[in-house]
């Protein structure tokens, strides 16, 4: 198909849902989700290493503290880095930490790797690139800046689509921030509004070297197939690498898929070996007891894991659709009387997700942005009509819920908070009869067409048996939903919900791009 026809909606067959054991045969509690490790590595950790953050300012302050404390590595993957004074302060923190590393005895240990999207990071004269070039010039041996360029933006299409609009074709959308062995998973970008009044979600995994290694390798893999920013603000590919928009598209995507899947599969194999070793050790009780005794004497005994982290990757341009498969299976397998709280800043669910929500047994509480807290509210030009398009999509879904008489089981709620915008995404799963969630998904995907088909996405499934961590996750969910109102028929009769005819006509044609 010609490259200039790429904006046409991608017609792809439905993704196969993983065959998980029937719920009646599932192990009790959190262990029923162990089927996820058939696809991705399973990292068992102590719940004491997990901290849920609640506010943009807390997120920003943590970023600065972690950068300043880093000794070996700083790895940051985001859509873009903003250009305001708060973002500049982050760059100063990086500069200060790199300077300290440079002045330390011997060769500097600290390495900084930053992965951003090419089109979003290049927007405007002052942009992410110009913010980071001083670091590249001052610390050329320690700093790497990679700019991912989607292989779907090429040829005549690339020449014709103007700035900003070219971002609709595909993006690097992963948000991971790690410092030595501490990892922050979020949906937030590195921009001032995400540090002040744009509500998102954030979780810190402390002292988790294996998880930090995994995401370091993942970002390195994407970085290797990305354009490398140079000190003179030009970009070039690594030697021998196929170019994302000048080279052969099929060859590029195959190389990218192989690099990413190598990271996933090698980590999964290693974790399986560790799991088998632990299992066999537990079979020899006396030797294990003596081993535990010696470990306890030396104070090095690690607590038994009560929490499991599963990284879920979605990169449909490369043929990787793990996150989609796991999400669809979770929705399919959710039993009657289970409760799923699902949130997205941009309510534009794929048809598959909508069908599962409307056709399965669990209760759903879906939190979405009211028009006033939509990130596009008040934008100039065509972008200013995007909140109205989301209202139209929401109204269509709500009408379908009513038509199927599912209002009790599927409830929509709109987040509204004066002076704030809403960008939180993910889900919390409450098993039947439980008041606390045992699983959450947190990361970059929005559950929409873009997340599934166009962009590079990553999130983690956090599964826990620990009541204190379950309580943390429950409080996070309650705090977000506290700022919401239930959607009803009267919601769409309000003057601010009026959708112009042209928006209604255009929305079905463009909904796959936002």
TrEMBL record:
It catalyses: a CDP-1,2-diacyl-sn-glycerol + sn-glycerol 3-phosphate = a 1,2-diacyl-sn-glycero-3-phospho-(1'-sn-glycero-3'-phosphate) + CMP + H(+). Transmembrane segments: none annotated. Its main location: mitochondrion. The keyword Lipid biosynthesis applies. Signal peptide: none annotated. Residues 168-194 form the PLD phosphodiesterase domain. It is an enzyme of class 2 (transferase). Its EC number is 2.7.8.5. GO terms for biological process: cardiolipin biosynthetic process. This is CDP-diacylglycerol--glycerol-3-phosphate 3-phosphatidyltransferase. The lineage of its organism: Eukaryota, Metazoa, Chordata, Craniata, Vertebrata.
